[in-house]
Each structure stands twice: as C-alpha cells, then as structure tokens.
Amino acid sequence: MSQAKLTLKQALAGLEAGEFSLSEIYKDVNKAVQTDNSQLNIYLTLNEKAEVEAANLGNLPLKGLPIAVKDNFLTKNLRTTAASTVLDEFVPPFESTATAKLKAAGGVVLGKTNLDAWAHGSSTETSQYGRTLNPRHPDYLPGGSSGGSAAAVAADFCIAALGTETAGSIRQPAAWCGVVGLKPTYGRVSRYGIVPMASSTDSPGTLTKTVEDSAILLNYLAGHDKKDSTTGPQPVPDFTQALNTDISGLKIGYLYHDLEGLEIVNPVIEEQLKVLEKLGVKVEKASAMDPKHAISVYTIVQRGEVSSNLARFDGIRYGNDRSFFGDEAKRRIMLGTYTLSKGYADQYYNTAQKVRTLFLQDFERLFATYDVLISATSPNYAKKIGATEGTAMFGELEDMLLEPSSISGLPGINIPCYHDQKTNLFLGMNIVGPMWEEARVIAVAAAFEKNTPWNSWRNAS
Amino acid sequence: MSNKISTAQVKHIAALANIPITESEEAQLAAAFSETLATVSELMSVKVEGVEPTHQVTGLQNVWREDEVDQKSMLTQEEALANAKNTHQGYFVVERIIDES
C-alpha cells in the first residue's frame, strides 16, 4: 500500500512503532502529487522545503507529517493567493495563528490548496487559477470553497488538511469528495491571519480521512487567541476522549426530512439513521425553521461583510489593484455595498440580523429536546464541472442545509454515509451540536463511522 | 420596494466600491443583482417585530487586552514594504486623491 493512504492516526502510530519512516511517507505523497496535480489542480503552491522542515520534528505530536492548507491561511514566506490574481505574488510576512499552532505541534505545510476565489463559492469554479477536479471522478466538481483541501485528502495528496467554513465551505466539499469535514464552533479556532470573508461566521477547521483524525487535529488548533478577540475563553477539552464515548441514550433530531429537492439523499439518511438507532440512540423527525430564510440571511450578511473586508485590497501595500477581482468577488462586493448603503441597510441588513436571532432561538428550542441534530449535508451528489455557469446563487442553494447552523455559529461535521459504486461518488451526513459541543458531534460521528462501511480509508479494499 | 437595479445604480455602486467595470458588465451586474435581491426579498415575509438583531454569536462583550506593544508581531520596514508594487525611499507610493484646483 502507498504510505500516502495512511490516516493521520495510522501514520502517527506507525512512525512511533518504527513500521515505516517519515521519508517513505513523503516519497509516496510526493509521487501522488507529481502524478496527478497537473490534472486535478489541487495545489496552487507547493512548499519545496516541506521535507527539510519535517526532518527534525519527530519528537513533536504531529511528527513532521505533511498537511495540506487552504490558500487563504497566511503562511510566512510561502505564497498565499486566496485563489485570486489580486494576490498573485503575495508572500505573507506573518503567519496565521492556526498554521502557527499546526507547525508548533509538528505539522508541516506541504502546499496551499485551491479554493473559490476569496472563498466565495461552493465549487472551486470561481478560482482565478482554474477549477479543481474531484479525485473520486474527474468529471465532477469537488465542491467548495475548501474544495482543494477536500480533494487533497481524497487524492491522498496529504495526511490531513485545513480548511475554512463560512457557510458550508468545509462540510459541503467534504460530502462531495467523500471525506470527513469538521467545522468547529465559531470562535473555537482563531481567524487571525486568514484572508477574511464574513468575519461573523468564518470558522477554520479540518478535512480529514477519519473522524478520529479530525479530533486529533482539532486538539492542536483550538483555543483562545489574544490576536482574535472573537475566540472564546472556554476551556478546550481533549477531543479524542469523545471518540469512544457510549452514545446510547442520546436523542437525535432528524431535520429537513420534509423538504423538497432531497428525494435522493433523504432516503439514504433515513436508512443510515437506523444504524444509530441500533446503537441505542433515539431518533425523531424534528421540525426546524425553513432553511430558505437562512439562504437570504447569509446572502445579505455575507455580501455586506465582504464589501467591508475586501475594501483593504487597494494594491498599495500588497497585491494588485481592484481591477484584478474576478466576476464573483465583484458581484459580492458591489451587492454588499448596495445593501449596506443609506436607505437600504434597514430593509436588508438589519432585517437579516433579526431573522438570524430567530434561527438562534429555533436551535435553542431544538437543543432543549435533542442532543444533536442530523440532516443531509448536500442535497445531492457532486455536480458536474461547469455546473455553476449562469447562476448568481449557486453556492447558496448547494449549502442550504448548512447555512442555518453556520449563521448560528454551531459546530458540525460531515461524514460519508453512502458510496455509489457506479460513479465512485459519495453522499454526506451532517451532524450538528450546540455551541462549544464539538465533542458530542465527534462522538456520534465516530460511532457512525465505526459501524458503517462508507469510509474509504477505514474500509480500504 | 422594487428589487430592480438599473445600470445607472450599478455605475454608482461601482464607484462607491471602487470597482472598475466595463459597459457590458453593467447590464450583467444589474441583472445578477436584481435576481439575488428578488430571491432574498422573501425575508420580508418573516415577522421580526420586537426581535433584537444578532451581530455576533459568542455573546462576548468588551474584550480587552493590555495596551502593550508586542515586538514579536511587528514587521520591519523592509518586511512591510516587501509586497508593495511601488515604493519610494522607504514609503508606499499612493495615487494623488486631493485635487489642487
């Protein structure tokens, strides 16, 4: 077996036991990248010094293993573009907190992965460096915006990856690529040094081969950061403790069971929920606020925050001038400028923030009854390349099932819950918990993963 | 209120946002904005009377830090200028924005 196919846990255990060496892992990962990156377009920039940096990290917890990082995390002295030619030659003079913590734990940034430009989208098709292809089937999209990181995991171009989610950008590409995607609670992982999109919902997180790997990585990323005052003071538990929690007796609310357009995915979710029932979990159909309102709230709030956040790209201190923005960024900046302008802010922005309150209250009501909430992650399988052309609202419709929890700041995880053997594509299940309860989400996801055949690494043929 | 955006409005918004656009883009953007605003206008059907807006979800208030300079997170002049396209004697060069007339 190629050592590139190792999960993070397997790689750490094998290195510890001396079953293989770090250089064997790098050799196999580099081989996979050299063979297929030109076709799949996953890495925008490779860290040529990765293996040298890794050499002396054996005593640190992550032992120098190669990690893929979405190209919107600033990495000191390593080009960072946010997949926009505005930042074509930008070499950051400082490091994001998340990648600094990753490195301090012994992780090595192998390369920077493609995304929708500025993380605006759900397909990687708005990247100004070309779309990424889905490694499971190259006629299909990987999803987005963390599509490059999800694809890097699926293609074994890394041992694990970092991504960011504002509304679906970790969980949706994870679903489309058949990997695990964990979006922590807003404020759990620092946003410092990440190219900002919508500051009130941006959440850095992980894309990994297994639930266990996501728990291991989150342990090193989480925690208060004095450079990001929106990070919470809550203590950080050892998330790996949740992996073997007995979940019997938990109560799960099944959401969006009656929503139109989910005729393919919902029967699969219902079948898979029986697995959890056999583990002693009580599953009930639950009613939630219509997610179409979340699309509207998110669209208005996100465009507004984008217009403000992207005002800094003036081409004076770094980067190219504003004529380099792609079509999607132009649309979002300008629409946000409009909806925040005098006379319209009350109609759009303030109404959206009030409806956001109603979503928070709705989740509070649901969590009074249920321990976690489960729904489909994406309405369908990965879409074919070119699917975004001619639609102004592509991402919002694809992320509809995730936007309510995103605008509410809640933690959620995507896990593969079905594999179509004809197309080699996956469907995903989304598990959401209350604020700061990643451990509960991880516990349910780990139990599901252990008792089903859908994870392609745990169940490698 | 109408959700229809005119090309004149697009031109005005582009100027406010400092985004250079071409004439052919004006019509495309006007159509895209009208489509998106029509979609999100469904929000007006939600009853929000008496509901407080949520601007952030953590509930944190007045997060302070010591008023101290952190030398480690300061850039040198060379680092600060390294990514600029146009510098002059250790300064960023900017376009003139004050009209002398």
Indicate the overall shape of chain B. flat
**Oligomeric form of this entry?**
heterodimer
Give the N-to-C terminal Cα separation of chain A.
11 Å
Most residues in contact, chain pair and counts: A-B, 57 and 50 residues
In percent terms, what proportion of residues of chain B is strand?
Answer: under 5%
Query: How many DSSP helices of chain A?
Result: 14
CATH fold call of chain A: Amidase signature (AS) enzymes
- The number of strands of chain A is 11
How would you spell out the order of helices and strands of chain A? HHEHEHEHEHEEHEHEHHHEHHEEH
The assigned CATH architecture of the domain at 7-43 in chain B is Orthogonal Bundle
Structural class of chain B: mainly alpha
Largest β-sheet summary of chain B: 2 strands, antiparallel
**Main sheet of chain A, how many strands, which sense, barrel?**
11 strands, mixed
Query: What helical percentage do the residues of chain A reach?
Result: 25-40%
Look at the structure and give the mean pLDDT of chain A. Answer: 96
What is the count of structural domains of chain A? 1
What's the overall average pLDDT of chain B, rounded?
Answer: 92
- What do we call the CATH homologous superfamily of chain A? Amidase signature (AS) domain
Note the gap between the termini of chain B.
41 Å
**Shape call of chain A:** globular
Low-confidence stretches of chain A: none
